[in-house]
Amino acid sequence: MTTLPERAGRHCQAVVNPLHSAVYFSPDLTREFAFLGVDDARSAYFAARAAPLGRVGTGAVTAAFYNFKHDHVARHVPGVWDTVSPEEALAARLRAADTLLRRLLGEEAIASAELAEAAGLALRAAGAGSRPGRPLYAANADLPVPEAPHLAFWHAATLLREHRGDGHLALLLTAGLDPLEALVSHTASGHGMSPRWILDSRGWSTAEWEAAEERLRERGLLNTDGGLTEAGTRLRKDLESDTDRLDRAPYEQLGAAGVARLTELAKGFTATALAAGAFPAELFH
After folding, report:
1. E strands, the chain, where?
2. What Cα–Cα distance (Å) separates residue 110 from each residue in 66, 75, 207, 211?
3. CB 276 within 8 A of CB 104
4. Sequence-distant contacts of 78-83: CB under 8 A, at least 24 apart
5. What's the pLDDT tens digit per position in 37-93?
6. pLDDT by residue (tens digit) across 227-276?
7. 84: which residues sit within 8 A by CB, 6+ positions away?
8. Using CA atoms, how far apart are residues 48 and 38, in angstroms rounded to an integer?
């Protein structure tokens, strides 16, 4: 087994992931789906991310995405498939990724040897992931790799994100954190999205958020000020460490030097993307 520096895979994924996830917050995705008759941005998100799974229903999306309220998902899925097919949705999200990355990074970076190198490294890592028990990773892994380096990189970044995410969800279940408790505790750790954004995008109410906070207090994980207790901090830390363990195969495939190089390259591209406004300013608190 290849020995990697502690948290090397996590640090790598942290700078690769923004170049994947930015597409779901972009006007480019909304525009591509509007061209196909999907005018609701939430419906566009669900269709774009769920499309690798095929024409799935509400239950499958709720299960795979985990932290969205089932009733909220049901307002968009499976109804969105009456307007756009999964195949059309996949093509639309790739067009959106193309437009987004060209806009954020610039044509010089898109054509650079560095981006092509990053794509090769990311694809090598992503190909070492494990399909069993990882529905979103497995579904995306069955898709063809785009030819253009920047889109190949986006595809690989998608695989790496979903591989880590699928494993993390299994651990949330093991820890006994329901979808909203997971969101509340993550936000309380200082690393999650703002509560306002979560409530708006995930379909939960303020009363449901407050009830989740109370459940976490009863377990000794959250204090009266809404911050994590020592036990809560330890739980979130253990969750991330265990997620690292379940997510180690892609980074072991690259080895320490390869992980370091991919991290270096992705960090530069992500910094450029963030400076260009890759995410809404109100997303994080």
Report:
1. none
2. 34, 37, 46, 46
3. yes
4. 79/43, 80/38, 80/43, 80/46, 80/47, 81/47, 81/55, 83/36, 83/37, 83/38
5. 999 999 999 999 999 999 999 999 999 999 999 999 999 999 999 999 999 999 999
6. 999 999 999 999 999 999 999 999 999 999 999 999 999 999 999 999 99
7. 33, 36, 37, 38, 47, 92
8. 11
Q: Which two tokens stand for residue 205?
A: 């109410």
Give the C-alpha separation, 153 to 156, whole Å.
5
d(CA 35, CA 63): 29
Rounded CA separation 98/86 (Å): 18
Amino acid identity at 115: L
Q: Tell me what pLDDT residue 285 has.
A: 57
Say which residues have a Cβ less than 8 Å from residue 230's Cβ, sequence separation at least 6: none
Radius of gyration of the chain (CA): 19
- Cα-to-chain-centroid distance, residue 40: 20
